[in-house]
Structures are given as structure tokens and as C-alpha cells.
Amino acid sequence: MALREMDGATLLQDRLFDRCPLGCSDDLQTSAIILTEGPLLRCAMCSQLLSSCTHGQYERALKKWDSSNGTIPAAQSAARFQQVTERRLRCALRLLGRLSPPPLRLLDVGCSSGALLAVAAKLGFSPSGVEIASKAAETAQRAGFEVFCGMLHEARFADEAFDVITAFELIEHLNAPLLLLSECHRILKPEGVLILNTPNAGSWTAGVMRECWDGFNLSSMGGHVSFFSPRSLANLAGQCGFRVERLETRRVRFAESHQVSPIVYRILKIMGEVLSIPASLLNKGHDMLAFLRKM
Ligand SMILES: [Zn+2]
Question: 31 C-alpha vs ligand 1 centroid, how far in Å?
Fold first, then answer.
């Protein structure tokens, strides 16, 4: 059913998405995945899934991120965060090779309270950040980092200012991702690298769990509204002057821990672990990480 036929004109006026934000011309269709806000919408051309939430629901969900702790990892996961972030940044260094003399300039978009900036500084990058949530940005500034509080385009960075841009767990929150990637393209040096991660809506997890998957949850995930697959992510990258240099997906899950009994959760977790290698090989894992190169 086409979106415009779904439930009348009044609802459409306030809906966050009335067309695919990746610029496709086809109408959005309703999918069979029904969430609290209504059915997820699907772009027939690029397969992007989109929340049918209103502007008000979206803005309320985004407020979750404005706390002074921001996304500082909890003590028990700090070591893991450091390890994962280091691996990603070292991969960007390998892709860059000897293109620029050190220190390489890195910008973290959506830097929150600065956890990634600290790891980047340790690796020898000259890091800075952009963060829209003022309390989290202040925490990063107090730690000594250069952080602009506002939207990326408002920071008015110079052309070709950065070697690496990171935007982790960000694009699924955006209603206009083309604007963000176009601005990243402008401020990256030629052949510079943009690293993104986002839930994979084409994953086995999304296919099996559907509306039960936390990745689709608007309020608990602080405003997840736009769900990429490897195909739609490549579409976004290509439209903004990037090529996908490397794409990896990992992890399979069949239930959230709060949805089933502990023993069932344990069994499903083992099944997920068994399937994690084929999922990675086939790009069917639910955590998607992409290294995009400025063309
Ligand atoms: Zn589309």
C-alpha cells in the first residue's frame, strides 16, 4: 500500500518521512514490521526502512542524549570500547597509508562526551569533535578537547580540513543523511576516509526479530528512524561522492534478554554465535561498519 493512501492526509502532514531521504523518486510503501509509531516504511528503489513517527515523537526521542555523561562507556565496557575503537582507527590509518604527514586530523561527528576523541589522541591523531547535545559537549570540552556544540554544517570547517571523519551510531538518527555526508565530503581531504557504523536492516537479526529487535526501537534507542542495508548505504555513499572501501557486518541475535527466559536466551545466544561467521561472510550481521573513501 502506498504511504499516501495509508491513513489520510492529516497524519502525513506531521510525519518525519514522506519520501526516501536518500533521494529516491518512488513512493514509500508500508512494510509488515509494525512498531508503536506505526508500520516501518520501505523505499522500493533502495530498500531503506524508515520510521513512520511524527516530528514530535522524533524530537522527544533525541532528547535522551543530552546528559553530561553522554556516551562515556560504563566502567565494565570501557576496555572493550577502547579496543574496538583502536581497531577501527588503525584500519583507517592503513587505508590512508602515507597520504598525509602526521598528526592526522580526525573529526568525530556526534562525539558526545569525548570517549572516541581520547582514544584517537592516544593513537597520535589531532582530534576534534562536533556534538549537538550541550551537556555532553561541555564534558568533552572540560577534558580539553576542541568540540563545536551544534550541527556539523554550522561549524563551518574549512574545505579539506580532515584526514579522517568518524560518525558512529549516528546516521540511523538522521532524517537528512545526504546533508551530513555531503558536508563530510567537503571537509575531508582528497582520498580521506569516513568511518560509519549503523544497524544493518538487511541482517538475519532484523529478518527474524522484526518489530522485537531493539535496533528498530525509536524511544529506547534515542531516535533510531532510518535503517540502512549494505545496498542502501552504498546508495548513500555514491550519491555523496564516496566509494565503499570496506564493509563488514557482525553479530546475530534472535531475542533481546528481556524478551525470553534466561535459559531460552542462552540457547538463542549460542545459536547466534554459531551463525556469526557465516553472517559476517554474507554481510548478514546486524552491526554494520563501513569505511568510505572520498572520490
Ligand atoms: Zn531510497
Answer: 14
Q: Is the dihedral of CA 72, 111, 258, 283 positive or negative?
A: negative
CA of residue 225 to ligand 1 center, whole Å: 14
Share of the chain above pLDDT 70, in %: 90
Distance 18 CA to ligand 1 centre (A): 12
**Distance between Cα 108 and ligand 1 center (Å):** 26
CATH of domain 3-294: 3.40.50.150
Express each pLDDT in 39-60 by its tens digit.
Answer: 999 999 999 999 999 999 999 9
- Residue 103: cis peptide before it, omega within 30 degrees of 0: yes
Where are the extended beta strands (E) located within the chain? Answer: 28-35, 38-43, 49-50, 105-109, 126-131, 146-149, 162-168, 188-199, 226-227, 242-250, 287-294
**174-202 tens-digit pLDDT:** 999 999 999 999 999 999 999 999 999 99
Distance 236 CA to ligand 1 centre (A): 9
Residue-wise pLDDT for 114-166, tens only, equals 999 999 999 999 999 999 989 999 999 999 999 999 999 999 999 999 999 99
CA of 271 to the centre of ligand 1 (A): 33
Sketch the domain layout of the chain as residue ranges: 3-294
CA of 231 to the centre of ligand 1 (A): 10
Q: Say how many Å lie between the CA of residue 202 and the centre of ligand 1.
A: 14
pTM here is 0.90
